[in-house]
Amino acid sequence: MTTAIDIGHVSAGVSAAPVLEISNLAVGYRGSDRFQRVVHEVSLRVQPGEVVALVGESGSGKTTTAQAVIGLLAENGRLEAGAVRLNGTDIAGWSQRQLDTIRGSKISLIPQDPTSSLNPVKTIGAQVAEVLEIHRQGNRAGIDARVIELLARVGLSQPELRARQYPHELSGGMRQRVLIAIAIALRPALIIADEPTSALDVTVQKRILDLIDELRREYGTAVLLVTHDLGVAADRANHIVVLKGGRIQEQGPTAEVLSSPRSEYTRKLLADAPSLGKARAAPRGTSLRTSGSDEVIAVENLVQDFPIGDRRESFRAVDGVSFTVQRGTTHAIVGESGSGKTTTARSIVGFQKPTSGRILVDGIDVTTLRGENLRRFRKTIQLVYQNPFASLDPRQTIFQIVEEPLLNFDPLSREDRATQVQSILDRVGLPQSVLARKPHALSGGQRQRVAIARALVLNPKMLVLDEAVSALDVTVQAQILALLDELQQALGLTYLFISHDLAVVRQISDTVSVLHNGRQVDSGPVEDVFLRPGSPYTRELISAIPGQGTTIQH
C-alpha cells in the first residue's frame, strides 16, 4: 500500500506536467441484478492554471467522472479501470483514508447545491474552520483569523457576522461563496467545480465564475469544470471535453470545438444552447404577432404586500407593476430570485388577492372573484411549475395525474375522460405506454410533458409557465420549448413565461417585463428591451448572459 506521497502544489507556468491526467477511466455501478459500466475509457488532462470543461446532458457521465477523480463515488460505484494521476501520482487505487490526506489540501470540490452541501446546524465559521482543523493548519486563534480572511476573500460582506450565522440566514449566492472559501482554504492544486452555478441567477452566476477565475489566476490552480451549459464553457474554459453516454465525443481547445465541432452530438448541443443560438435565427420579437389580436391579460398597478411575523409590519414583494399581454403571444417576466416575478404570476392565476391594483384576464377582474366563480376561472388559466420531479404526485399513475383536473371540473364519463387523456398525451408527444407508469419511471423531459398535458387537458386559453424549463438539460429544454411553440400555434394559447434565463426569454418571447426588487424597470417588445435596455439593472442582466460573442459553426 502506498503511503509515501508527493503531490505538491504546482504554480502556473512552473511545470508543463499536467496537474490532473485521467487515462482510460472506466466506472460502473452495481444494480439489483448486474454491474453496469457508465463511463468508458475517458482520458483528459488539466494543466496548471487551466480550466477544462466537462460538458454533456444528465446521464452523460460527467459528474461520475469528477466523483471518481476525488474518490467520492456512491457506495454502489466502482472505479473499474484506468489511472487518475494528480501531479504524476496515480491515486486511482487509494483507500478513503489515503484520499482524506489530499482532499482539501491538494484537490477540492465545489459541489452543485449550496443548500444541501452545508450543515444546517453548524455556523458558517465552524464549517470553514473544519478543513483547516482536519489538516492541522494552526492553533484556534490562527484558524479563526484565517476563516475571517477566507470569507472576506470570497467577497462576503461583514465576514465576522457571516462566520456566526447559519446557512439558512444566507442567500444561495452567499452559500456558494462559503463553499468556495472551503475549497480554496488550503490552496489546492486542483479544484473540481461540479455545476457550481446551475442553481443561481445569471448575475450571481457571473460573480461566482468571476471569483473562481480570479482565484485560479492568483494561485495557478487548475479547474475541472463540470457543466451542462455550453455558454458557461464557452466563456470560462480553455479546453472542452464533450461526453455522451459515458464516452468522449470530442475534445479540444474551446475555440476549436465551438467553431468547428466534429461530432454530430456536439453540433446538437450547440444548436440547442439558448445563449449561443440567438444569432442564428430571426428573433420572434422582430415580427410580433399582434395583428388582429387583443389584450387577454392586463395588469394595472399591481401591489402585493406580505405581513412579517406577528407584527403589523409588511414586506412589499410587488410594487406598482403594469403590463398587457396580447392574445396568442408570449409575455415573459424576468428577474432574479426575490424580484417578485412568481408573486406576480400567482396573483394573475388567482392564488392570492393583491393588496391593490387590477388584474383583467379575458375581461374578468380576477381580484373580485370569490368561491365557485374563482374556481371556474382557474379552468381558463393553468400553471406549469418549475420542477417536474417535485410537481407530480409520485403515488399516482400518469393517467391519474392527467385525468385529475377533469375530475375536479367536468362531469364526464370514464370513457370520455380516457379519450381526453389519451388525446392530450398524443398532443404533447408522449406514447400511450406511459399511462400506466408512475413519474419515477419517466425522464425529466417526459415528466415536464406530463405536467404540460395536465395543464392542457381542461382546454385553457392561457398557460403560466413558472421556470418551466430551468430544471432541464439544454437538449431536453430545447425539445420542450419547441413543443410549447407548436402548441401555441395549434391551439392559439397565450403564455406568461416566468424565467431568470434571459437567453431562453429572447428565444421564445414576444414581449417582456423586467422586475427588480418588486418594481418593473423595463418592459416592451423583447428585441427592443435587449437592444435598448432602459435601466442599468437590465443592462447588467443582459451582460451576464454567458457565451455572448462566441462564434460557432452550424
Descriptive key words:
554 residues; six-stranded mixed sheet; 20 helices; globular
Quaternary organisation of the protein chains:
single chain
Low-confidence stretches: 1-15, 278-292
Q: DSSP strand (E) fraction?
A: 15-25%
Strand order of the largest sheet: 6-7-8-3-9-10
Tell me about the largest β-sheet. Answer: 6 strands, mixed
Strand-pairing-aware structural class: alpha/beta
Strand element count: 20
Q: What does the radius of gyration come to?
A: 25 Å
**What's the number of helices?**
20
Gap between N and C termini: 51 Å
Overall 3D shape? globular
> Helix proportion of residues, in percent?
25-40%
What does this structure look like?
The protein is of the alpha/beta class and 554 residues long. The strands form four sheets. Strands 6-7-8-3-9-10 form a six-stranded mixed sheet, sandwiched between helices. The chain has a six-stranded mixed sheet with strand order 16-17-18-13-19-20, sandwiched between helices. The chain has helices spanning 62-70, 96-100, 124-134, 140-153, 159-164, 172-184, 202-219, 230-236, 254-259, 264-272, 274-277, 341-348, 371-377, 398-409, 414-427, 444-456, 474-491, 502-508, 526-531, 536-543; strands at 20-30, 35-46, 51-55, 77-86, 89-90, 107-110, 190-194, 222-227, 239-244, 247-253, 295-307, 314-326, 330-334, 356-361, 364-365, 381-384, 462-466, 494-499, 511-516, 519-525. Strand 7 (190-194), helix 7 and strand 8 form a beta-alpha-beta unit. The N and C termini lie far apart (51 Å). Helix 3 (124-134) packs parallel to helix 6 (172-184), helix 6 runs parallel beside helix 7 (202-219) and helix 16 (444-456) runs parallel beside helix 17 (474-491).
